[in-house]
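ok new one. same drill as before - structure tokens go in, u give me an amino acid for every spot. 355 of them this time. try not to just spam alanines like last time pls lmao
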């Protein structure tokens, strides 16, 4: 199996990175579809227009509302097709960025992503997720290539609530362990290929950065004043985590995001918080002999990540049939194959009960 490493064409990060938007967009034409949710549109639209004016780039807003369903995507694509746009600019959280990816794929056009929160690593990846109207995951789709440009303005991101930052850490901390499982067992990454050593080292660096600077970085979240630690952790959560999962591969921690939402109370928990608990389940199933689990639990306590299903919203007593359904859905996910042994449904149910 060939090794493949992929990533965005160019990554900008720092206070004021958004000021490069016009220059970046001007590389691809004069008319851009602006895929954005209604809240962020109200906050940033005038600024985005002003930033693009000097490059003579006009913005055509495509407002994202509701769930990322196939119907939502079809509507956005239809709007884009009637507007003769040259590129797609996606601004906001994971939903808006995913919608932008779907539009860019349909238009066969360059994509610029501008995250306004650091709750996950969607800005750098080619993946986007579709749900039904009840937020049940339907499918993970892919652009042919990653976003061309990623603009991460840490002044903007540092204004977002700490809850989103915490979820981003929960999503990112798993990547070292999932990529490690994939590499060890010759599993497939998100390019349907083998992982490179480079991706493994990036995932390792992501974890080390989070453990070293995560607590201090969290103190800056929501203040609007990015610190040096905040900068390093944002890079870990968006760039290192994105490259680590996509080129390194995923395993049980992310496979569990297929099953956990079937447990009543958990479905509305942020993705990164579900992954944080999923990682603890994965490490339990690994039967590790090192001190990594203890180190992680101490760090989880420092940064306020959940360690129990009940902290995600589940009842203290979960019906056995519900756990079996969650386990079956998890094991059916492609990432579950990237584990060092074939798991039984009962093994996974037992591990979930221990959480």
């Amino acid at each position: 199996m060939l090794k493949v490493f992929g990533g965005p064409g160019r990554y900008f990060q720092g206070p004021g990175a958004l000021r490069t938007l016009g220059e970046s967009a001007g590389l691809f034409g004069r008319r851009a579809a602006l895929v954005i949710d209604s809240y962020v549109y109200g906050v940033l639209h005038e600024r985005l227009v002003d930033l693009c004016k000097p490059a003579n780039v006009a913005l055509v807003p495509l407002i994202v509302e509701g769930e990322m369903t196939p119907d939502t995507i079809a509507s956005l694509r239809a709007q884009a097709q009637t507007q003769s746009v040259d590129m797609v600019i996606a601004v906001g959280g994971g939903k808006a960025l995913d919608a932008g990816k779907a539009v860019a794929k349909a238009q066969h056009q360059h994509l610029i992503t501008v995250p306004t929160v650091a709750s996950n690593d969607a800005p750098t990846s080619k993946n986007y997720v579709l749900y039904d109207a009840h937020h049940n995951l339907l499918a993970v789709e892919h652009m042919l290539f990653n976003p061309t440009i990623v603009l991460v303005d840490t002044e903007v991101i540092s204004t977002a609530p700490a809850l989103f930052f915490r979820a981003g850490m929960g999503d990112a901390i798993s990547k070292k362990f999932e990529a490690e499982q994939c590499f060890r067992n010759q599993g497939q990454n998100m390019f349907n290929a083998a992982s490179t050593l480079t991706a493994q080292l990036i995932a390792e660096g992501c974890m080390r950065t989070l453990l070293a600077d995560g607590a201090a970085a969290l103190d800056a979240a929501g203040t609007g004043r990015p610190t040096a630690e905040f900068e390093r952790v944002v890079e870990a959560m968006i760039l290192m985590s994105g490259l680590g999962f996509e080129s390194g591969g995923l395993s049980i921690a992310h496979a569990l995001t297929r099953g956990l939402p079937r447990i009543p109370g958990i479905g509305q928990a942020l993705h990164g918080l579900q992954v944080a608990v999923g990682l603890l389940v994965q490490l339990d199933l690994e039967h590790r002999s090192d001190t990594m689990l203890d180190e992680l639990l101490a760090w989880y306590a420092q940064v306020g990540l959940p360690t129990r299903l009940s902290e995600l919203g589940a009842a203290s007593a979960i019906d056995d049939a519900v756990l079996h359904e969650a386990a079956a859905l998890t094991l059916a996910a492609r990432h579950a194959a990237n584990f060092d042994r074939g798991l039984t449904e009962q093994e996974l149910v037992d591990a979930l009960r221990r959480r």
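The chain has a mean pLDDT of 96. and btw The longest strand covers residues 31-37.
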